[in-house]
Amino acid sequence: MAAVRYLRIFLSAFLATIALVPATPPSVAQEKPRQPPVHGPPPPFFNALSYEDAVRYSDGGTEVEHHRTPADELAEHRRIARSLAALAPQRKGVVDAYVVSIALDSDGNFSREAREAARVLARRYDAAGRSITLAGPDGRGGVDLPRGSPAHLGLVLARIAEVMDRAEDVLVLYTTSHGARIGVVYNDGDNGFGIISPARLAAMLDGLGIKRRLVIVSACYSGSFVPALSDGDSAVLTASVGDRTSFGCQADNDWTFFGDALINQALRKAQPLDLAAAEAARLVSEWEARGRLQPSLPQSFIGDRAKLWLAALDQRTPKAATAPVGTPAVTLLDKR
Predict the structure, then answer these.
(1) Which of 164, 173, 194, 300 lies deepest, with the highest CB count within 10 Å?
(2) For the whole model, what pTM was predicted?
(3) Contacts by 290-294, CB closer than 8 A, 24 or more apart
(4) Is the pLDDT of residue 126 over 80?
């Protein structure tokens, strides 16, 4: 999918200073839903990077933001501030899950997947009031959300680290986008570019003291996140091994193959995570065989201590399954 060109110097430090803002003016509520920006020319500055420089910049959290108006940035500031302010505190004596679902590419299919993933995961893990979705416009007139970007993800994780009990509670992170061999790609039209590398994500989580985590990565080459994030307290599920692509990321889709199989099918059922991961891997394999595609080989890892907090969360999972939504990802095979 996307490759090394999605990197270069320009630290977005201004986003790190975002603070909760006063009450939102009435005009914000009257904004028309935005449409997903269209990807145009290649990202600026990236093509000349060597692989070594690309790894260094992505591990350092580099991203580019440009050609954004002050008015648009103020509106974006308010969207993220409202989301941060709405996070409910943890409940003492309860293993609370905090769900973050992020679409890092502005094509509407990723936004649609991230939005529904947030609903499924919040229901499954009893995270009402403890869920944030970071995603651009979904192309269907859905409510405007804070954009999915590495900087916004960092802010959300930092806020969750403040309100959760890090010895008791759990982060559930779902990310969907294109992928490169060095990480998950951030590409917001022609305005925002970057990569979240496995090392960068691990450094953010470890630095914030978020050890109990379920991380799900739907992207090509996403298996590279497994060794970086795996330990006894963690669970990690990815759409592919580290050196293969995954499928279903066409802009008019509602789901990637992996998102459809895991979120839209397996995790809607009251079954343990390991069984859900196995069901998703089987479905993806069947769909790839039908399309004569190279197997992506979804990966899963569940640490020994993670099995304990997963069991506590599973006790509160609703017993009734919900129905899948959207157009099945496998229908794209009929268009080939």
Answers:
(1) 194
(2) 0.89
(3) 290/330, 290/333, 291/247, 291/333, 291/336, 293/247, 294/244, 294/245
(4) yes
